[in-house]
Amino acid sequence: MRRPGETGSRTGWLRARADRSEYKTFGRSRSLRLPGFDYAQPYRLFYVTVCSKDRQRVFTAQGACAVTRGSLVESCARAGYRLIAYCVMPDHGHALVQGGPEPASLSSWVRRFKGASQQAMRKLGFAGKIWQRGFFDRVLRDYEDAVALGEYILGNPVRAAWWSSGASTSGRVWWRR
Fold first, then answer.
1. H runs (alpha helix) in the chain
2. Which class is 42-175 in CATH?
3. pLDDT tens readout for residues 100-146
4. What is the Cα–Cα distance from 173 to 90, expressed in whole angstroms?
5. What DSSP designation does 168 have?
6. 45 within 8 A of 96, measured Cβ to Cβ
7. Which of 4, 89, 23 is nearest to 51 (CA)?
8. Residue 120's CB: how many other CB atoms inside 10 A?
9. For residues 49 and 93, what is the distance between their CA atoms, to the nearest angstrom?
10. Radius of gyration of the chain (CA)
11. For residues 164 and 76, what is the distance between their CA atoms, to the nearest angstrom?
12. Residues linked to residue 146 through DSSP beta bridges, in sequence order
């Protein structure tokens, strides 16, 4: 029985398999970033989602949200990004950011944010890793509506029925028009 892509000879199948090996990461996960895209473009809008490790509900603890918010604001300023909107949920967070005139790459900003918030959480007594590896991003195109996306971010707790449960949302959501 022939394998898909097999040309009829053993060497043809090996050649087809070798072409696919460039996509192998050998134990590492593949990057979710667009290949060849400049993630440090001035004034580019990004929608970023980061999740806690194993989706643990770490941001319900006293002070956890405040230190995460502080790390988010500080890391944005240091990396040259403007924080437009954010929402910290119990097990993940969303942010809408815009690069300044000379922003750092998006990956380096997220790395700074995760590292700073990890250190701050350790000071509160959290042990182990807080964040899952990687992050999810969406590059907003020029025609996409940033206001609608900001409203979507702010509506996240409502859709999760989190506000109706009586949980405090103070400092968890923010919008800058």
1. 10-20, 64-79, 106-123, 146-154, 156-159
2. alpha beta
3. 999 999 999 999 999 999 999 999 999 999 999 999 999 998 878 88
4. 12
5. -
6. yes
7. 89
8. 19
9. 6
10. 20
11. 31
12. none
DSSP 52: B
**8 Å CB contact between 92 and 64:** no
**Domain spans of the chain, in order of start:** 42-175
CB 102, CB 43: distance < 8 Å:
no
Residue 89: closest CA among 42, 62, 126, 51: 51
The type of residue at 9 is: S
Residue 152's identity, in one-letter code, is Y
Which contacts qualify for 10-19: CB closer than 8 Å, 24 or more apart?
Answer: none
Residues 96 and 46: beta-carbon distance below 8 Å: yes
Global pTM reads 0.74
- C-alpha–C-alpha distance, residues 22 and 19, integer Å: 6
